[in-house]
Amino acid sequence: MTKEVEVAREQAAEFSAKDYTDPPPAPLVDFEELTQWSLYRAVIAEFIATLLFLYVTVLTVIGYKVQSDVKADGDICGGVGILGIAWAFGGMIFILVYCTAGISGGHINPAVTFGLFLARKVSLIRAVLYMVAQCLGAICGVGLVKGFQSAYYVRYGGGANVMAPGHTKGVGLAAEIIGTFVLVYTVFSATDPKRNARDSHVPVLAPLPIGFAVFMVHLATIPITGTGINPARSFGAAVIYNQDKAWDEHWIFWVGPFIGAFAAAVYHQFILRAGAIKALGSFRSNA
Q: Cellular component terms, GO, for this chain's entry (predicted)?
C-alpha cells in the first residue's frame, strides 16, 4: 500500500511538472532580420496568400449577387447564399493557414499580426512588413476579380465592406470588435505551445479551428457589416471599388479589428496564461 502511494505521488509530481517550453519573446526591433531570406520568403508568402484569399472570396460574393439578382433574370434562391459565402471565407483561411503556417505563421490578416506582435510572437519589423504585404496582396486579389468580372463588379458593390441598412456605425464597430476577438483568441489557443506539447495532433489541426472561427463570425456579421475582421480584406476591396460610401465607413474595419485583436491578446496572455501574475512573481504556474 505504501509503495502504491509513493508511486501515485511520483506520477502526480511528474504530471504537474511543466512539460512544455514557451518560446522566448521576439525582440521588439531586430535589424538582423532584414538580412535573412526567411523574412522575405515569409513576406512573399503573406502577399500571395492574401491575394488568393481575396480573389476567391470576393469573386464568390460577386458571383452570388449576380446569380440571385431577380432584376437581371436571376433566381432569388440562386447562388451559394450567405452560408456559401461564409464557407468560402472560412475554407480559404483553413487552406491558406495550412499552406503557409510553416513559412510565415499563416497570418493573412493585419489584425492577427497585430495581436501576435502585442504578445511578442513577432518583431515590429516583421509585423510591419507582413501588414504591408497583406494589404498589397488584397489589392491585387480584388484587382483580379474586377478584371474577370468587369461587367458586374461595380454594379454589385465590389465586395466592399459597408454597413447594412438599419444598423448604426456603433453596432458595426462592436460587431467587428467581437468578431475579431473570436478569431484572434482562436489563433492564440490553436497555436499555444502548451497545447502543442501535450496534444500532438494540435499543430496538424490548428488551421481547422481558425477557419471555423472565420466561418462562424461571417454567419453572424455578414448581415451587419458584410464581415471585415481583416483590415487587409476591407482595404483591398475599398481601394479597387473606390466609392464614397466604402471610404466613409472604412475606419470601422480598421479600428474594430485592432481593438478586438488587442483584447484577445490581453485576455490570452495576461488572464488565461497568467502573464500579469507571473510578471509580479506572486504566482507559480503549474499549467
A: plasma membrane
